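User: I'm putting together notes for a lab meeting next week and I want to include a structural view of one of the chains we've been expressing. I don't have a solved structure, so I'd like a prediction I can at least talk through. The sequence is below, exactly as it appears in our construct file.
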Amino acid sequence: MTSMYAYPLTNFQPAAVSSPRELTEIICWSRMQAEAGQDLASIVSRKELERSAGDGVFCWGVGNAASRAVAFHARDASEIDVVFSIMKSRPKQIDVAPTQVLIWRSYFDHNGTERSLPANSLITSRGGNGARTKESHYALMCRSETPLELGDFGPFDPAAYRNVSATGAPIGASQVTALLRRVNTECSNGAYRINLRAKFTKSYWVKLSDPIDLSHSKQALLKLSLADINSYSVDDWLDLISELRAHSGRTIVKAREQLSLF
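Assistant: Thanks for the context. Below is the predicted structure for the 262-residue chain, given as structure tokens.
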């Protein structure tokens, strides 16, 4: 029997299948897979630690920029579900074994102000591709009141949605993450599954800044930590992020400004 997942996930035991609650009319849909040398199950495990340490808030790194409509909805505090589906294709080799890993430390909020990422957030990405340096990365700012767990939470039918834009175009093949509006009833046998859910919070979908190159020793530390992530306490997690972020670079905002994120 063929697995429902196109690419096998290490140490992943899916949760029981359940019918999803009705999604909001506007949603953010993101397809997920291995990134920055970390398999998907490990990424979700550390995002759960991040959520626990952040009073339900976690940040999920993505590769493409937000549509212009996102800032409007963030300022309006619109309720928007974030739906994650596992990619059907295998992760690229450069994502499985990158030659360079970056850690991002700041972001631009929906008003354009540069702020430090919350102390509980760890966002990494692969670095450059050969001679080309990676200059941009983005993140979804999410909230979940329940623990994060990969599972099968029902079908998702991308054909029932269109981009939130002036043209309302269908979802493009290259759109890994998109802000969408439901325009038709979803089919019960949608092309994808809902494998993780959350809601937008704070600035919703942001551009990241202030990256630093993660040294080989810190990459090794992160790899060892991920292998033992289930034994980490919230304090252990915060200490790890502080150590990984440590650098002689600039400080973006004062502590009192960071508190406004929560």
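A couple of points you could mention at the meeting. The first strand starts at residue 26 and ends at 32. Residues 26-219 form one domain.

User: Perfect, that's what I needed.
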